[in-house]
Design brief:
There is one protein chain. Helix content is 48%, strand content 13%. With 255 residues, the protein is of the alpha/beta class. It folds into 2 domains: 149 residues, 3-Layer(aba) Sandwich (Rossmann fold); 91 residues. Strands 3-2-1-4-5-6-7-8 form an 8-stranded mixed sheet, sandwiched between helices. Helix 4 links the parallel strand 5 and strand 6. Helix 6 packs antiparallel against helix 7. The longest helix has 30 residues. The chain starts with 6 loop residues before the first strand and ends with a helix.
Length: 255
């Protein structure tokens, strides 16, 4: 008797690749993958590739890892999608619940915000629990989510939309800012050894402050830290503006 696959993935990009590799590493079971550009065996060789996107619906759960509009164009009105009764884990920020429920009217739909980290065998995520889902249905869906890694659960859709950006996109932007700060700190050093040492000291200090159990305040001779903090200006306003731009882009993509 053929064993039903546990996970199907719609998409073949970096998000789909990360989900597939993590699932395989943590469960030992090959996911079924469909990509608009065809099989990519060189990237996820252990996966089972299907030439039709509906092949992913043979699995118990399906992860959506393509943009919302692309999925609606692909699956809108499809009878197999209408009959699918498994879990649909939607990782596309651009899909509304109403649009996805129209495509998969009988499925258990859970929105997820995955945080992909290269080389890590887990995908921490935030999941939005549907308000109309029973405890038994949620327990079943959550059991599959646990196979990806740590999962925090929220029930407020507006909060989830904000948390989606905080999980991966915003930290990536902040990391770029931190790296720029490191560049500014070593720009007057000409020796490559000194530059490398300066970067290590900087990131070691950042890591220590992030992991400190205290308030993170630090004292330096002559008020050097205090002078720097006073010179920052309205950096919070800058970050707020950047975050608003990311929220606006997420709204533009919403289907």
């Amino acid at each position: 008797m053929d064993v039903r696959p546990r996970l199907g993935i719609i998409g073949g990009g970096r998000l789909a690749e990360g989900i597939a590799k993590t699932w395989l590493a943590r469960t030992g079971q090959a996911p079924v993958i469909w990509s608009r550009s065809g099989p990519r065996d060189n990237r996820i060789s252990e996966a089972t590739w299907t030439t039709k996107w509906t092949g992913t619906l043979e699995a118990e759960s399906v992860a959506v890892a393509i943009p919302g509009r692309a999925l609606l164009e692909l699956a809108g009105g499809n009878e197999q999608a209408k009959q699918f009764t498994g879990n649909v884990f939607n990782a596309a920020a651009s899909l509304s619940r109403a649009s996805l429920q129209h495509v998969f009217p009988q499925a258990t739909i859970v929105f997820i915000a995955p945080f992909l980290i290269d080389g890590a065998n887990s995908i921490p995520m935030v999941a939005l629990r549907p308000a109309n889902l029973s405890d038994a249905e949620w327990t079943k869906a959550n059991a599959a989510l646990d196979d990806f890694g740590d999962c925090d659960v929220v029930e407020d859709e507006a909060a989830f939309a904000q948390l989606y950006l905080l999980g991966a996109a915003w930290p990536a932007v902040i990391l770029a800012a931190v790296r720029a700060a490191a560049d500014a700190g070593v720009q007057r050093l000409e020796n490559e050894i000194a530059i490398d040492l300066g970067r290590r000291i900087f990131f070691r200090g950042i890591n220590s402050l992030l992991n400190a159990e205290t308030s993170g305040e630090i004292a330096t001779p002559g008020g050097i830290t205090e002078r720097g903090l006073k010179s920052l200006g309205e950096v919070t306003v800058l970050f707020h503006t950047v975050f608003q731009q990311m929220q606006a882009r997420a709204e533009e993509l919403r289907a």
